[in-house]
Automatic annotation (TrEMBL):
It comes from the Archaea. Signal peptide: none annotated. Keywords: Membrane, Transmembrane, Transmembrane helix. PANTHER family: TRANSMEMBRANE PROTEIN DDB_G0269096-RELATED. The chain crosses the membrane at residues 21-47, 67-85, 90-106, 126-148. Residues 9-139 form the HPP transmembrane region domain. It comes from candidate division MSBL1 archaeon SCGC-AAA259O05. Pfam families: TM_HPP (PF04982). The lineage of its organism: Archaea, Methanobacteriati, Methanobacteriota, candidate division MSBL1. This is HPP transmembrane region domain-containing protein.
Length: 152
């Protein structure tokens, strides 16, 4: 077993610039929104950035999955924060978001983090931020799709 992925030698430029664009995208988004969202929500969007820019051809990186999954996670998180008690609201959020994402063919694993975060620490601003930021990331990924390669 190798420690460094064997594809790095052939795709090293992609590894560097795609990782850089993932971080740069988040930095730009945070310039505008950092003061209104919680850290858990920012982490979920960071995971979305990873998905969009490092595995762009994967099903979970499609715009439907990114935007739809994050919208589901945000809505479910807010609902669970209202209707469930503290000890179970986070688990209920992840469970219900997972069920809806797979049922609606909008699977996006980082959105489970969104559901968890908003279940525990509800915020309308956060719920609006996540789909907006995910849309920006999806659009950026679409505009760069000709140049993005799967790094897995």
């Amino acid at each position: 077993m190798e420690i460094i992925d064997e594809k790095v030698r052939k795709k090293w430029k992609n590894y560097l610039w795609q990782s850089a664009i993932a971080g740069l995208s988040i930095a730009v988004i945070l310039v505008f929104f950092a003061s209104i969202v919680g850290l858990v929500i920012v982490a979920a969007v960071g995971a979305t950035s990873f998905t969009v820019f490092t595995i762009p051809n994967h099903k979970t990186a499609r715009a439907r999955s990114v935007f739809g999954g994050q919208a589901i996670g945000a809505i479910v998180g807010l609902i669970c924060s209202t209707f469930f008690l503290d000890p179970i609201r986070g688990g209920a959020g992840v469970s219900l978001a997972a069920l809806l994402m797979v049922t609606l063919n909008a699977e996006h694993p980082p959105a489970a983090g969104t559901a968890l975060g908003l279940s525990i620490d509800p915020s309308l601003e956060g719920a609006l931020f996540v789909p907006a930021a995910s849309g920006i990331l999806s659009l950026t990924g679409f505009l760069l799709s000709e140049y993005l390669k799967d790094l897995t």
